[in-house]
Give the backbone structure.
Amino acid sequence: MIKKLKGIINEYFIGNEEVVNNLLICLLAGGHVLLEDVPGVGKTTLAKTLSKAVSLDFGRIQFTPDTLPSDVTGVSILNMKTGEFEYREGAIMHQMILADEINRTSPKTQASLLEAMAEGRVTVDGRVTELPKPFMVIATQNPVEFVGTYPLPEAQMDRFMMKLSIGYPKPEDEINLTKNQLSGKTFENIESVLTAEDILKMREEVAGVKIVDTVLKYANDIINLTREEKRFVMGASPRAMILLVKAAQARAFLEGRDFVTPDDIKAVSVNVLHHRLALTYEAKIAKENIENILYTNVLKAKVPMV
């Protein structure tokens, strides 16, 4: 079933198969994804293609500078007949949310997603409302160097399991993509191969993927190396450790295994960690690169025998 899902997504989203694999890892691990890239490379198309292929209730929030927190989480409105306040759902009340151009809205509105992404619920005027399951946020943003953007705060970035970049397609992929568009082949015609129940069942199976203590220590060694790294302002959080292990479990599941190997940890570590880290002023002046530093730290960690 997963193989068929991959095939369908790659048929309509032509380009970066690694991004598709990582997106599926986040879906199965219960994580959220931040897609960061220049306009026009297919961020929105990828998110919509996935939602169609897995038959989830889909909602889109187009973030702008005037988007309000209540637009996202909902609002309490006074019913003049009963004299009581009634909750009106916000745009967040869907199984899969496309938070489009999330860095074009104010920090206050960005923060309205924090509780939903961390706990799967929203609180409005003291009323707690559970979000539908499975729940996943796929956010897109243009690079922060672009005009009119608000950089996401550290607390918001830490809620995303991975930050992925699609990049420009290869010439042959771009030609095939153009042919698809000219022939009218779009994601609107995609057949669904998985249901919400299927995703929830797979998430249970992923949570049951075994990971031995030596591999857990290997993951923790990588986390601790980010905390000891002088070129980072701060190291990865305990949440990063948890999400790193969950992503490794999902990768093992996709590979057809019921146990996590050190290679699973290594394969997902950079995508899970790099958006949580920031360079010191001195490192920026020296034109250091977060990914290069992470790769070096991963290589420093002693790989256990399993």
Remarks:
- Strands lie at 33-36, 58-62, 74-78, 85-89, 96-100, 121-124, 127-130, 136-141, 162-164.
- The chain has 14 helices and nine strands.
- Residues 214 and 304 are 6 Å apart (CA to CA).
- The two ends are 29 Å apart (CA to CA).
